[in-house]
Amino acid sequence: MSVPKSMFTLSLIVTSFLLILSGRELFAQDRGTISIDRAIVLPLTTAEGNQVKVGVNYNIQDQSILGQRINAIMGIYDRQNGSLIKLSSFTNGFILNNTNGTTQLATTLTDPKIQNISAIVTLTSIDKSEKYTNDVRADLNLRTILPTTLPPLLEDIPASQPEETNAEEEGEDSPAGSEEE
Q: What's the pTM value of the predicted model, to 2 decimals?
């Protein structure tokens, strides 16, 4: 039984495509690497929604991109179903002045139904057509966000009174200087 020529050609094309993609990923990692510095979600104080902030540390080995304007992309994904919620990047990129550094991406999510997300970040060329680093991922749970301010205090709460102690048992003088004689 022989394999039809068209099946062989198709498998060769698919294999070649996969090798090209994996080689492109290897080249990106040769240019630089990134790691998560911090990832947080904070509730907005002036509007409804949450702000996602991801800071990454970078180490660029490719000296040819130093001094160049590069970009970063952050994809926010729903961890329940894997769907892309939002893509964010710098409007005008940023100039890569050092081989080692930190940069932060931020975006706002306004859908209150979003609970568990993954933020995936990579550094790219300014036009986002070429990856310069590996991807990094931060998993965040929006249900664990705590308020940034206390709720208004109730005005009818009585002021607390200091507790009275028996000065002789405590080994101290009596309160308000009223020693017993």
A: 0.65
Give the three-state DSSP class for 14.
helix
Mean pLDDT by 10 residues, the chain (181 residues): 56 53 50 93 86 95 94 94 94 94 94 89 94 94 63 53 48 37 33
Residue 175 lies in a domain: no
| Number of other CB atoms surrounding residue 55 within 10 Å | 16
As for how many domains the chain has, the answer is 1
DSSP string, 146-177: PPSSPPPPPTTSPPP-PPP--HHHHTSPPGGG
CATH code of the domain containing 37: 2.60.40.10
State the burial class of residue 180 (Cβ atoms within 10 Å of its Cβ: 0-12, 13-18, 19+): exposed
